Amino acid sequence: MKLIKDLEFSGNRLRELNNNTLLPYTSLSYVYFVDNFISSIEDGAFIELKNLQVLDLTTNAITGFPKNVLSLPQLRSLYLSDNKLKDDALEPISSLEDSNVELLDLSKNLLTKLPPARAFTHLKELNVSANSISTIKASDVSAFCSLHTLDLSKNLLTFDDSCKCLELNAWIKFRKIKILPQKIICDSSTINTDKCSETQTPEQLISNETLKAYDNCKNNIVMHNQMIRTRTTWIVVSSCLIVIIIALIVIFLIYKRNAKRKFRNKKELATSHQVNDELLNVNSINDKK
């Protein structure tokens, strides 16, 4: 069972995933639990699935999600659509935690804002359609510095200042992000002409706050990659040291064995000479008699 790569268990009446549910299937790469009644997932339910690439839990009753899943090294696509997840469901365990997830589907949940960007620096596709998100800023989107597809449809977005709306559209245009709906409509009647104008270029509309959020995300990616390289270097160095130590131990044992053999041969030779000398002495005495 450990060699199974795909697990399709959709359309059943499964209600929970405990720490032992998937324990016999540690080689899984693709897991589908679509359209069940899952409401409870224990923290260790997926922790042993180091090769997991796609996890689909669409259409369940999930209110809480194991945060350690985000750290699975091979996980690229995570589908959590049509559940009961709130804003804190995907908060990272620590500020240093990063995820390799590239596609995240959180549509049809109970979100009032975007998920925490610091946990998803590699995210390329984000679907938060049909939630309860009412406000969003350009800096909220720019914090996802790898993003190229964003689905905000079926959210009742409002802006107390249309300059924020213009900036959001400017960032989306500047970064060439594919968005649904195709364009966010800004209320021109609330535009503060002292702060912004519809005739301004995207570069003029984008604030320092938005650029800073983007830069922070990029820096986190650099730090994450450096950490991986450092870890890899230490693994290589440690492996080399272990090989050298083992080689030295083997050489020492061979030397010790050869030294013992030489000592034993020398001792046997000395004993042989002693016996021969004694025999010669005995023969000499006998001859004299």
TrEMBL record:
One of its GO terms (cellular component) is plasma membrane. It comes from the Eukaryota. Pfam families: LRR_4, LRR_8. Its main location: membrane. InterPro entries: KCNMA1_auxiliary (IPR051432), Leu-rich_rpt (IPR001611), Leu-rich_rpt_4 (IPR025875), Leu-rich_rpt_typical-subtyp (IPR003591). Keywords: Cell membrane, Disulfide bond, Ion channel, Ion transport, Leucine-rich repeat, Membrane, Repeat, Signal, Transmembrane, Transmembrane helix, Transport. It is found in: Cell membrane. The chain crosses the membrane at residues 234-255. PANTHER family: GH08155P, LD45603P-RELATED. This is Uncharacterized protein. It comes from Cotesia typhae.
